[in-house]
TrEMBL record:
Annotated Low complexity bias: 18-37, 57-88, 110-126
Name of the protein this chain belongs to: Uncharacterized protein
Coiled-coil residues: 144-174
Alphabetized UniProt keyword annotations: Coiled coil
Residue ranges, annotated region (Disordered): 18-126
Organism: Eimeria brunetti
Taxonomic lineage of the native organism: Eukaryota, Sar, Alveolata, Apicomplexa, Conoidasida
Domain of life: Eukaryota
């Protein structure tokens, strides 16, 4: 018997995968809305550039800040996914203090999946660095392009990490079902 949902959430402080997926979708929608608003402001600046150098510097700094914020949000989501996958066997198989956890196929895939998520997060770093470099040079148009490239790289890395997490979760669920069937037989 696994732990009840309420007890698992109270002990672990994390929701179950279905609830976490809904929360992630809401967060992604909010992030997309914020990015669209920022991109609209950047495009308005490109087609109607201000005359003051301070406005250019502010836009360049905003582009670099957006790239850094996107990378930070991506890392936080990946850490949450990794923590959820590490704690999922506890919910499936019960309390380790009362009985040892079963080693099932699919659980061992967590480590490669986590390594893949870390590698995809590292792929977004060059684009964010390019945005910061463009902002430092005081080139608003280059900063806008670099920020857009950083956003695209972060979105691609996040999508790849979510796919890897989904595959790992499917493998764990299948392994847990097989173990339960074997135990019941």
């Amino acid at each position: 018997m696994g732990l009840p949902v309420e007890l698992f959430e109270a002990l672990v402080g994390l929701p179950l995968p279905q609830q976490q997926q809904q929360q992630q979708q809401q967060q992604q929608q909010q992030q997309q809305q914020q990015q669209q608003q920022r991109r609209g402001a950047m495009l308005l600046f490109v087609f109607n550039p201000p005359n003051s150098s301070s406005s250019r510097a502010e836009l360049a700094a905003a582009a670099a800040a957006e790239a850094g914020q996107n990378q930070q949000q991506q890392q936080q989501q990946q850490q949450q996914q990794q923590q959820q996958q590490e704690l999922l066997p506890l919910c499936m198989h019960g309390n380790p203090s009362s009985k040892p956890l079963r080693r099932v196929r699919g659980v061992e895939q967590q480590a490669p999946a986590a390594a893949g998520r870390r590698s995809t997060a590292a792929q977004a770093t060059p684009a964010a660095a390019a945005a910061a470099a463009a902002a430092a040079k005081g080139s608003p148009a280059a900063a806008v392009d670099a920020a857009a490239a950083a956003n695209a790289a972060a979105a691609a890395a996040l999508e790849k990490a979510e796919q890897q997490a989904a595959r790992a979760a499917d493998a764990e669920a299948a392994a847990a079902a097989a173990a339960a069937a074997a135990a019941a037989a």
